[in-house]
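Sequence, structure tokens quoted for completeness.
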Amino acid sequence: LDRRYAAYIGIAITLFSMLGMVQQTLGFYFQDVLQLTAIEAAQQFSLAMMVSAAATLVAQFGIVQRYKGQATGLLLLGLPLTFCGYLCLAMASAQWMLITGMALFGVGMGLTGPGYTAAATLTVEPAEQGNLAGLLAASAGLGFVIGPLLGGWLYGFSPHLPYALAAIGLWPIFFFVLVIRKRLVKK
């Protein structure tokens, strides 16, 4: 509950809850949206996960490694891309929309993850960074407990609902990061 980094713990829990919510239901979503057999859905889902992972690597090796701005800048770049990915998934009616959504999501999370982690570690002394890294990792774990439960429940109402909620859930984080960034610039 340390005020220096509590917001970043909240960001991590939220981001990974959204991620867990989406990943838990995505295989079923491919099957339902594309009207595929279980085997076909698994194949398409695997392709989409590979595209997402490749997009994350491109973001981390191509953008993050060259980025020279504030750590919160990575959040401000990544969150809108992640939003677009979730929105594309929420509105998907074809394979290309699902693949595009996963690619956008991959790039967005590839920027967002290093952004919140770096921003959080800059709030503490060097001797405290290991402890904070552990808390951030535990926050991701907590998100993967909350997200799948929430995603499965929402999916029962509408297959599109987990993705729409994930998209909407990113905006409070985005605006919060804008406020944090303004405070950091004033210091």
Summary: Residues 6-34 form the longest helix (29 residues).
